[in-house]
Amino acid sequence: MEIVSRILEGSLLSGGAEPGRFFEGRVTQDDKIARLEDVTLLEGCSHKQLRAVARITDVLELPAGTVLARAGEPGNEFFLIVDGSARVEVSVRKRSRLERGDYFGEMSLLDGGPRSATVIAETPVRLLVINRRDFTTLLREAPGLTQNLLITLSKRLRQAEAAVR
Fold this sequence. Notes:
- By secondary structure, this protein is α+β, with helices and mostly antiparallel strands.
- It has one domain (3-157): Jelly Rolls (Sandwich), CATH 2.60.120.
- Helix content is 38%, strand content 22%.
- It is built from six helices and eight strands.
- It has helices at 3-9, 29-37, 47-55, 106-111, 132-141, 143-164; strands spanning 58-62, 67-69, 77-83, 86-89, 95-98, 103-104, 118-121, 125-131.
- A four-stranded antiparallel sheet has the order 1-8-3-6. The chain has a four-stranded antiparallel sheet with strand order 2-7-4-5, with no helix packed on it.
- The longest helix has 22 residues, at 143-164.
- The radius of gyration is 15 Å and the shape is globular.
């Protein structure tokens, strides 16, 4: 079950915590576009395309310790960290950290396959979230976005292969 679904049904947060109480100020459409401009995945997109992406993007604020994605579960969302940091756990020995401007979830977003890692908020996080259904529609409407995504995924695959050697 994905994070947004869990929030909507009320099963995600415990101990009286509520989303949206960790950071000051709102994230405007212009803020979203500015953040999206820094995503290498979207680097070849026009301002018009970035506006389209920003329109389908939700803002989510969650407390430290929240599991944002769990390895093996279906992926239906793409996440961009606006504020805060998260820990990526691929295995017990393979961990990394994501910070402001980093993103995850693009592979599962494309194919609906299981998440390849567990991602846990280390601090309170503010995220831009794009769900799979909206993203699929956008990809049909913005072929340049599709090409950028394929290039980025190819680079990540090459890096992963090189790390295994």
